[in-house]
Amino acid sequence: MGVIKLFEAIVQLANPMDLLLMFGATFLGIMIGMLPGLTATMGIALLTTLSFRWSAGNAILTLVGIYIGAIYGGSRTAILLNIPGTPANAATCFDGYPLARQGKGAEAIGLATTSSFLGSCVGLIALAFFTPVLGNIALEFKSYEIFWLAIFGVAICGNLTASKDHLKGWISGILGILVSFVGMDKIQGYTRYTFGMQDLNAGFDIIPVLVGVYGLVEIVENLSRQDVKEVVDQLGRVIPRIRDLVSNWWNIVRSGLVGVVVGIIPGVGENIASYVAYDFAKRGSKHPEEFGKGSKEGLIAAETANNACVGGALVPVLSLAIPGSPPAAVLLAALWIHNVRPGPLLMIENPNYVYMFSGMFFWGTLAMLILGLSIVRPMLRILKLKNGLLMPLVFIFCTIGTYAINGRPFDLLAMVCFGLIAFPMRKLGIPDAPFVLGIILGPMIDENLRRGLILSNGGIGPFFSSTISQVLFALVVLTLFGRTAPFRFVSSSIAGGFRLARAALFRRKG
Amino acid sequence: MTENQLRKADFLTGILLSTFSILWMVTAWFMPRYKQGLYAAPGFPPVFFGAILLILSLVLLLRSALKGGYRIRLRRDHWERIKASAAVRRFTVITLFIAVFLVLFGKVPFLALSSLFLFGSIWYYKGAKLWVAAVVSVVASTTIWYIFSVVFMVPLP
Q1: A2 in B contact zone (CB under 8 Å)
Q2: What is the ipTM of this complex?
Q3: Are A68 and A364 in contact (CB under 8 A)?
Q4: All structural domains of chain A with their residue ranges
Q5: What is the mean pLDDT of each run of 10 residues along chain A (510 residues)?
Q6: Least CB-CB distance to B39: which of A220, A403, A453?
Q7: Which of A181, A254, A422, A439 has its CA 20 to 30 A from that of A228?
Q8: Domain ranges of chain B
Q9: A185 touches chain B (CB under 8 A)
Q10: Is the CB of B91 inside 8 Å of chain A's CB atoms?
Q11: In B, which residues are within 8 Å of A217 by CB distance?
């Protein structure tokens, strides 16, 4: 029944006007995603104001296209310049950029596009068919579970990005969490570490942090070097090989599911989805040593998960009116502006709207694939530009992207400060990704830790009482201590015990 | 960085981070406390995570000290090498360009400032011929200004 309704919605939207609008919006989304500093959230917010007077159908169609396009578009600069276009593409840099440096830029973009498409398809299935069911799962996550999830995010990111020296990864993550405490706290409204500076009252916006840590450092590093830019011929095909996709089928499915589940959880966005999926891919890979050096598996995992997360994040928007990620929050506001009332009553009042929305999502996904694969070759010319020409232009984009968020010069100062922190960090082998993730997740950790403790009158028991908390806690312990000698001894003993028991069992049967 | 240099750098980083975490915790300790209890105080999470950072940075410090990272000596030839380095010169110039751009941002119209920044940096870093640098800087600045200021209605200085 649901399949037929979805098909009907797709056919209904297959008219020249809607398709033109969707392709235009997705293209604009890709461009917004590609520019460092401009995010999906900002793109949707800007277009919400521009499409204010449009009909609800056209406006929502445009915003869905922008969302899908922007999350995908950020992979371009991540692969070509090592600067993630949006926070969702930070994990794409790990393997996308090394692939481009090996002369496989076209292949990397092709793989990222196809993975994003497949991820979006997983998100579409979740959105269309599991919205009422999956929405309820999100409600199981309370303060305790969200706290552990955020801690898990920082811990695995620390492990992943500092595979040789986890200690530096964790230091980076904790440092990020500490920096996130700057500004007004969400429980009592007390301003911390502002030292009388009013601009710090709201804390650090994530965009100046991201642009400073990734963009500015890359600009300064590239311009500091003599212009020894490797002229790498980006040979290779754009359309990925079927065998690359088939051999990664489980990686794609797993990353898609991770993206959807992370997307459903309120407030947790695409960036965390891609890190978690990347970690799963690395742990499950036969060649974990290739991760960070141009692994196709890593690239596929990160890009599948962040686009699957888009579909996942829209599930609670439609079913509960709770956004799963920051761009979804802006989209929710846009739905309200256009008199669409998402929430538990949507399935009763307007049962077909979920399918119509999913139909828009389908066309956005298809537009992303077609546009993504057709504008690869022109993009690769970026790699042939001299650093002396490219980097000053990138700096101007970074500045504008940062300034445009709030329109205050303080954000530019913050951008430079974070660049100055990240530059020596990179030289010292301290990864910057956990630092950024710490800043993103810090407020979530702070709020949920204290709210949880207040609710339990200071008791820590509830932090371990639910099954989800226990699983997440176990994952945190496994992430932090899984590779230490005592842990390996215990796990090998258990595995040995199982092997002996199985051998004894078979012998008895025999 | 060589292994030896990294060990010394880790030693200094360990000292810096442990000092930072102690100062962070001390500041948090003096934040107000409310009736709900110590755990509800705004200073509780900074103290908690500051303590974790202190432990981790002490481990880093100890680890590098055990490997001889404390043997740090500054020699005159270090400074001379730094002064003569082309990379340091290029780094200093771009840092200065960025600093000047930020100081003038909001005081000089965006179109003029970005054109000057682009022209200066493309010329210094030999990104293109002089006339190409001039054309690129004017065309790029005008396009960016038009898209953001007119299409997206973002007020630029």
Answers
A1: no
A2: 0.90
A3: yes
A4: 2-384+391-465
A5: 84 91 91 76 74 83 90 86 81 88 85 92 88 68 84 78 80 93 89 90 83 83 69 65 87 92 75 85 86 89 90 82 73 82 76 88 92 79 76 86 82 91 88 83 88 88 89 87 70 70 64
A6: A453
A7: A422
A8: 3-73, 88-151
A9: yes
A10: yes
A11: none
